[in-house]
Amino acid sequence: MIRREGSLGDSEWHLVTARGSYLPMEDVLLRMQSVDGELVYQALRAFRTDSGDSLLVNRGWVRVGDDNAVPDFPSAPTGQLTIIARLRIPMDAPAQPIVLHDWNMVRNIDPPVIGDLLGTDLSPYYLQLAGGQPGSLEPMPLPSTESGPYLSYGLQWMAFGVLAPIGLGYFVWSEIRQRRRLDDEDNDAAAARPRKGGNRAAGPGQDTTASQAPSGPPAATVGDDGPSDEAADSDRLVAAAMRDRYGDRFASEYRRSSRGGNRA
User: Fold this and answer.
1) Where are the beta strands (DSSP E) in the chain?
2) What backbone phi and psi angles, to 5 degrees, belong to 100?
């Protein structure tokens, strides 16, 4: 009999206890299997419980011999006995039964197909025998429940997914702030730089007289010499007014034209 709780699917890999005896027939071998990189055969045997159920038992594995030969291995014991095994649900894959080296072999565990080979009806699930049990060979390794490196890889990618947008936003903000700072420095430098040419034009209410001393060589001061000093004062006033209105360039041209006229 088998003691288990819950549905059959929820009980997979759980340890169960079966009382009965192995049926007196040859094992069926599960081929094309490997354990730790070595090719092996798994030995499958029918087991009848005291309640009359026929179960398929995976006894364990033996190494494949030369040219895929089947090595000698112990047969299942006879008589009434009790075994402890793990409940397994078969994979939905064809058994593909063949006869090789005078042994019935299958590609996958399919209890109904294997039952036809043995001439008995088998339950749709099977038992995987634990080590140290009556009839057990080398026990099949259990699947690892450790997360291995995959959990750490997953956490690293999650952290990257969170930090990447934050880092991108910081660099964009830093770039914008740097550009604004450079623009402010350029504006401050432009405001502090003296403008060339003085006032380009006099606005309403502004004095159109010279706001700055005329550039160039100093002119003669007004004295008692008569008309020549008055003409020099007039030239300076005109040059200053033109420079205030049109800038230094016009004043320079005016001085050059005045000097040319004087030479003439």
Assistant:
1) 15-22, 28-35, 38-49, 54-63, 81-88, 98-100, 103-106, 126-129
2) -140, 130
